[in-house]
Amino acid sequence: MARAVMHPLTRSENMSGTAPNGERMKKYAARFIKPNDRLTSFERLEIYNKQYWFRLFSGMIEDFPGLQAVLGNRRFDELCKAYLQDCPSRSFTLRNLGRDLEGWLKKNPRWAGSRQAVAVDMVRLEWADIEAFDGKAEPPLKPEEVAGSAGANLRLRLQPYIQLLNLHYPVDTLVLKIKRLNEDTEFSSNAFRERRKRKQVQAIARLKPARIFLAVHRVDYFVYFRRLEENEYQLLAAMQQGKTLGQAVQQSLATKKNVAPPELAQVAGWFQNWAGLGWFCALKGNRSRG
Amino acid sequence: MPANRFNGFTNYGIGIGLRSPHYHHILTRKPVVDWFEIISENYMVDGGRPMHLLDQILEQYRVVQHGVSMYFGSAEKANREHLRRLKELVKRTKTPWVSDHLCWGSVDGRYTHDLLPMPYTFEAARKTAQKVREVRDFLEVPIAVENVSSYAEFHVSEMTEWEFLNEVVERADCGILLDVNNIYVSSQNHSFNPMTYVDSVPAERVAQIHIAGHSKYEKYILDTHDHAVIDPVWKLYDRAIQRVGHTATLLEWDDNIPTFKEVHNEALKANRFLAKGVLAHAV
């Protein structure tokens, strides 16, 4: 029964006439499901088949509204159908439904067509949003914990919920616009909102690639996207990888072609901001031995 | 049976499902509500807003956990990660009991996220009961299994749904979360007398009762939890309370959710039946 329940619906969102094993679905359903005076075995099975797909589709729409805007409804539906067939849920919670989407989309670019690059960026951002929303937080670092410690050997840890992204398109702008539109339900009709959304989709189609660096983080339990300088991103990424402060600075602030090294005051300002946002975890004896 | 070993010897009254559209109202107005039921899976995460809100609710209200994906009826063993996270949550909420559904929904590690009906066979009852015991032993908290709404019946079934429920709970020695709306929905879809079902349930095992609304289609009824409770369901509730006594009762409203007040007022309608039940059991 599970194979039939997870079997893809037809284009008109009905149960397929052909069963997963190739036989007629009517015959397949009748083998294990009783008909009643109102519904055939096929129709009874179809209720579950439809519920399965509708539930999963609404999960995808809820988690990836930006991707839906980028691809349009029809292409998004086709992509979801293909993705969910290849990567059915393997988690007890629907929260994890989209966790394989980025990897899958990279291997299956045809589902996003000419918008592949922006679609991958969008999926990365929307998944990071989910991870940052309910990711683990540890007690923040207190200034007294680092007082007097050997700076270069210090191993600072970022909060587990922080997601660092380097993206090729400024998709954060579109996600924020969509969020605002969805929150605007009290003041606008569905039709009006959909029209505005379509306009945003057209706008994203005209988006030119632009390298952006983002930290997806939270303040007071709300998720925010914070744009970063490239060096700032590299420095944070190195610390997230477990590098000591010395290694992280050396690796990330090394002069690159066409990129001016940041001023010392600027780097100090970054650390001040990160600490202010509670991005560093308490040390708990994790100082490097050298 | 207001307090029994299947609901941790508690005596809870009328609760409602904790749903996100009501968070703000609950936290700012602090309405008097006897208890809230949470969907366990919504809070089996590492942190962030869901856990922050839950902690605020726990400071002021009693909370009972209700799960949707343990799948006691699935052939595979319970997912270890699921159990580990569920136990962590049980410690956090101090829920007196944990409920989940008498159904299956996963095969070979793939989840349908639906409550699929069981084939009512002795073999299925034996395996399901074994899994309920394993989960209870791991969680160290009483378990109540809930009867689901269903839209299909199997040729291989060897008994009625209520006989199957009784077989499972006796073998597992667990409690029942009796959903009278689900009984009504299934009775309409499968043409049986819902009162027979209510009358057949072992009253001493009922830990909790669910009430809810549903949607009627041309050829079947769907358990949508998006309407008020209809009179025939209240009648089933009345009968259940007459048999079971004053029992923890919860209204589920999961879609097209109205204001907090509307949901709470709908739930409080259960009071008139609970009062009658107390009288009946006092005589």
Question: Could you explain the architecture of this structure?
Answer:
The complex is a heterodimer of chains A (290) and B (283). Chain A has helices at residues 2-5, 25-32, 41-63, 65-71, 73-86, 101-107, 116-134, 143-146, 171-183, 190-205, 230-240, 245-253, 264-276; strands at 163-167, 212-219, 222-228. Chain A has 13 helices and 3 strands, in the order H-H-H-H-H-H-H-H-E-H-H-E-E-H-H-H. In chain A, a hairpin with a 2-residue loop joins strand 2 (212-219) and strand 3. Chain B has 283 residues and is of the alpha/beta class. Chain B has helices spanning 23-29, 49-60, 80-93, 122-139, 161-172, 180-190, 194-200, 231-244, 260-268, 270-282, and strands at 14-17, 35-39, 63-66, 98-101, 104-107, 110-116, 143-146, 175-179, 206-212, 215-216, 221-222, 249-252. The mean pLDDT of chain B is 95. The chains are: A mainly alpha (290), B alpha/beta (283). Chain A binds chain B through residues 1-2, 5-6, 31-34, 36-39, 41, 43-45, 47-48, 51-52, 55-56, 59, 88-95, 132-137, 160-161, 218, 221-222, and chain B through 41, 44-52, 69-70, 79, 81-82, 107, 109-114, 116, 151-156, 189-191, 219-220, 222.
